[in-house]
Design brief:
heterodimer, A: 426 residues, alpha+beta, 2 domains, six-stranded mixed beta barrel, two-stranded antiparallel ribbon, 14 strands, B: 248 residues, alpha/beta, Rossmann fold, four-stranded antiparallel β-sheet, globular
Chain lengths: 426, 248
């Protein structure tokens, strides 16, 4: 019997029992669609993390103050982290002679502040930094300009607004040249300054460090000069983070070593009072953070696997029933010359067609579910789903393997039937 | 063409061996029309199953068309059933779901023959069923079903046609129609036929009648004036089958 005839015969047999065939498929449909959806969500969230890390900029090294034994006020205020980094460290790193691979250095101080402009007010993160910041972090100015070298030396009261802050305070009107009032500290004893807006940033969205549109940038020296508690007991100005952009990812190792040596020398310490993380390290840390959801993912994958196995057992059961019911048919086919192999192939192809039709339906269902879920918020979690062709091929392949695995025993039973006994079966 | 030598067949009922055939020696020449008679349990169906390559003898040798069938394994027996033997059963043994033409195509399907449809339609036409090709068994009369089964058996041009009580499920008139078809297949096409029956009138169509008792051949007689001989019957095969179809 040719394979075309075998398939035609199997299709006819399945069509004769439509309800049974579709019920048999159900387990496979559920299992395969679950596999597709789970893999899509796993892939999607992975992609989301990668995009957020990449959104930070490229080839970055982050230097942060380390744990320190020094007990000072700042340590208490900033969650046990001593402010061991000073802006002079950043300027020292920005030395093309000593660090030829460094493309940009941006020290920063972040704090919460209340902004008032006209009748509107908002609470946002204020970042004190230097002109390199947009280049290092891949940010672009939409209107006006970013903080310039002039504003640094003059310690100017100028500000650049993030996209959303500009929207909130000024709506559709142009904020350039307008004044913004910034209040820092508890309401009873807050300090207030007036800043002139010189630029607005392009929208960027969320990255690994948070919402990049809900920010206001001011020159770092302005911040240090105006806000006294940013100075440490030695009278130096602390920064929270120095971001260094190097020309190539391959320079990470060398840069990490050189910068550490420089900082030890400058801080006159043997034990590091700072922490250096490359973008790769950050990516790994973020990956570790998503591990909890991987446990969940594994549990759901187990459910998918179990439903596929149960579906397979269901197919085996139905095929065994079918072989018993069709004993006489098998006898007739054998009497007119069907070999054991012919009968084996016929029943195996029937099982395969059920699982593969179930697999195909499951793929369609899974892709539909993933597409519907993508970008939505489900159970307070924003879901990203990305169906890969690999997942589709895998799910389809698995359903075929299930058909083979669970179909072979009933098919073998059928092929071994004695033709005379089969013919006399009622 | 058929040569059985010292054929025995022993079934096992639990631990007790039940002999069905005890030393059958039989030769059937090409073009013979043989009836096998005997009471129930005499072993005639067992003998037919062995002749039809559906069953293997416990001992003895079976030669069919020069092939030593008794040495064949299951798969080769299946091929032999397909190529050398045609079966007609008492209960027709058609597949309920298939239309007549696909029933007849079935052996050709396993033989991977091209032009199956044409050959099957031709075989059904020969049986006078040209207007019944799309009908499924439940839509056909008993006589029509048996003629579909005969078409299925003949479409492969078998060397040996075996019939197991082919008239047993039919009324007397239709039974005679079927027997006349067998007679003509033998007389006009020279097809070798072996037929099991316990009805004397049916056996009367054969040229040679053997009787079995307790698994042994007890008599082997030639029938000098078989029923349905040209003297007794007029119309040709096609015409006669056609008349039966129009009656049904």
């Amino acid at each position: 019997m040719t394979i075309t005839d075998t398939i035609r015969t199997a299709l006819a047999a399945l069509a004769a029992n439509k309800l049974r065939s579709s019920l048999t498929m159900l387990g496979i449909i559920i299992g395969v669609s679950a596999v597709i959806t789970l893999m899509a969500v796993g892939q999607g969230s992975q992609k989301g993390v990668t995009e957020r890390i990449q959104g930070l900029g490229s080839n970055l090294i982050f230097i942060r103050p380390g744990e320190s034994q020094a007990s000072n006020v700042q340590a208490a205020v900033y969650g046990g982290q001593a402010l061991t980094l000073v802006d002079a460290d950043a300027y020292a790193i920005n030395d093309p002679e000593r660090f030829p691979y460094v493309e940009g250095v941006a020290p920063q101080v972040d704090f919460e502040g209340r902004l008032i402009a006209g009748g509107e007010n908002t609470t946002t993160t204020i970042i004190g930094t230097t002109p390199d910041y947009p280049y290092v972090r891949d940010l672009y100015v939409a209107r006006g300009q970013f903080i310039g070298d002039d504003d640094i030396t003059r310690k100017g009261l100028v500000a650049v607004l993030g996209h959303r802050v500009a929207q909130t305070l000024f709506g559709n009107s142009d904020p350039i040249g307008k004044s913004v009032r910034l209040s820092v500290g508890p309401p009873s004893m807050s300090i207030t300054f007036n800043f002139r807006v010189i630029g607005v940033m392009e929208p960027k969205g969320a990255t690994a460090t948070g919402d990049e549109d809900d920010l206001m940038f001011i020159p770092l020296p302005t911040m240090q000069a105006r806000i006294p508690f940013l100075r440490n007991p030695q009278g130096l100005s602390n920064v929270f983070q120095i971001t260094v952009k190097v020309s190539d990812r391959n320079d990470f190792g060398q840069a990490e070593k050189d910068i550490a040596a420089l900082l030890r020398e400058r801080h006159n310490v043997t034990e590091d009072d700072f922490e250096i993380l490359t973008q790769t390290d950050v990516a790994n840390l973020k990956a570790a953070e998503t591990e909890i959801s991987q446990t969940l993912w594994a549990a759901m994958a187990a459910i998918a696997g179990i439903s596929l196995a149960v579906g397979g057992i269901g197919i085996m059961n139905i095929m065994l029933v079918s072989v018993t019911e069709r004993t006489r048919e098998i006898g007739i086919r054998k009497a007119v010359g069907a070999t054991g192999g012919d009968i084996l192939r016929q029943f195996l192809v029937e099982a395969l067609m059920v699982t593969m039709a179930g697999g195909a339906t499951g793929v369609i269902l899974g892709v539909t579910l993933s597409t519907l879920a993508d970008g939505r918020t489900i159970l307070e979690q924003s879901v990203r789903a990305d169906v890969s062709p690999f997942a589709v091929i895998l799910a389809f392949g698995v359903s075929a393997v299930i058909g083979l695995f669970f179909g072979i025993y009933p098919a073998y039973n059928a092929s071994r039937l004695n033709p005379i006994e089969a013919l006399h079966h009622e | 063409m058929v040569k059985l030598t010292d054929i025995t067949k022993v079934y096992r009922a639990g631990d007790v061996p039940v002999p069905a055939l005890r030393g059958i020696n039989l030769q059937i020449q090409e073009g013979e029309f043989l009836a096998i008679m005997g009471p129930s349990g005499s072993g005639k169906s067992t003998l037919l199953n062995i002749l039809g390559c559906l069953d293997k003898p416990t001992s003895g040798t079976y030669e069919l068309d020069g092939l030593k069938v008794s040495a064949f394994d299951e798969e080769r027996l299946a091929v032999l059933r397909n190529r050398k033997v045609g079966f007609v059963f008492q209960s027709f043994n058609l597949l309920r779901r298939l239309p007549a033409v696909e029933q007849v195509e079935l052996p050709l399907l396993y033989r991977r023959v091209p032009n199956r449809r044409r050959l099957a339609l031709q075989a059904l036409g020969d049986m006078g069923l040209a207007d019944r090709v799309a009908h499924r068994p439940p839509q056909l009369s008993g006589g029509e079903q048996q003629r579909v089964a005969i078409a299925r058996c003949l479409v492969t041009h078998p060397a040996l046609v075996l019939a197991d009580e082919p008239t047993g499920a039919l009324d007397t008139a239709t039974g005679h129609d079927i027997m006349r078809i067998f007679h003509r297949l033998n007389a006009e096409r020279g097809i070798t036929i072996a037929l099991v029956t316990h009805e004397r009138e049916v056996a009367a169509y054969a040229h040679r009648v053997i009787r079995l008792q307790d698994g042994q051949i007890v008599s082997d007689e030639l029938n000098s004036s078989p029923n349905g001989s040209p003297a007794a019957d007029g119309p040709s095969l096609g015409g006669d089958a056609g008349s039966e179809a129009s009656r049904a």
